[in-house]
């Protein structure tokens, strides 16, 4: 007698086979797959892939380099926590800005000056 787990794996394999599509899509047709922005494909093909040396040429400040090294040394969970903290900070800054804009509106300091 077959074990229940063997029956489940056969069922999974059958389901997987029914989900497979053997249709071949010809992506060379400009009618079926038009280029979104003319010339982008050629431009992308001519560009070199990103590398650390390309970015290091643009970074001149020592503080920025140290910050990049710090982020590079973080583990994935630590980096996610750092990003989460930055998102929370951005949200709080947005709330503070909204509060100050409302305050300025009530104090009428944002009105345009009338010229006589």
TrEMBL record:
A Gene Ontology BP annotation from the UniProt entry: regulation of DNA-templated transcription
Recorded family membership: Belongs to the lin-52 family.
Natural source organism: Octopus bimaculoides (California two-spotted octopus)
Designated name of the protein: Protein lin-52 homolog
GO cellular component entries: DRM complex
InterPro entries with a match to the protein in the record: DREAM_LIN52
Highest taxon, organism lineage: Eukaryota
Chain segments annotated as coiled-coil in the UniProt record: none
